[in-house]
Design goal:
This protein is mainly α and 89 residues long. 62% of the residues lie in helices and 0% in strands. The longest helix is centred in the first third of the chain and has 15 residues, at 15-29. The radius of gyration is 12 Å and the shape is globular.
């Protein structure tokens, strides 16, 4: 699943479906081992991942760690800030 979250997006963008399915599966499994993969999506500077995919990753991360990122005006930003705070802790 982690490898699917890092799949390069081609012109037809069908990879988004695989990436979103992998993100959803990581959240459903509920293992903290999914956090590094979600972090990679959230911190990616790939313009293709900067929209809905990062919102999905923020939602999945929130479910994994019990944080209400989706209640923020900027869920991906809130998730990135939380991840940064965890690295400092």
């Amino acid at each position: 699943l982690g490898a699917l979250t890092r799949r390069p997006v081609e012109e037809d963008s069908k990879e988004f479906q695989a990436i979103d399915a992998a993100i959803g599966a990581l959240a459903a499994i509920g293992s903290p081992a999914g956090v590094p993969h979600l972090r990679a999506v959230l911190q990616s500077d790939d313009e293709f991942l900067a929209s809905d995919t990062q919102w999905s990753a923020a939602d999945a991360l929130g479910r994994l760690v019990g944080q209400p990122f989706m209640q923020s005006p900027d869920p991906p930003g809130a998730a990135r800030a939380w991840l940064a705070s965890q690295l400092r802790a």
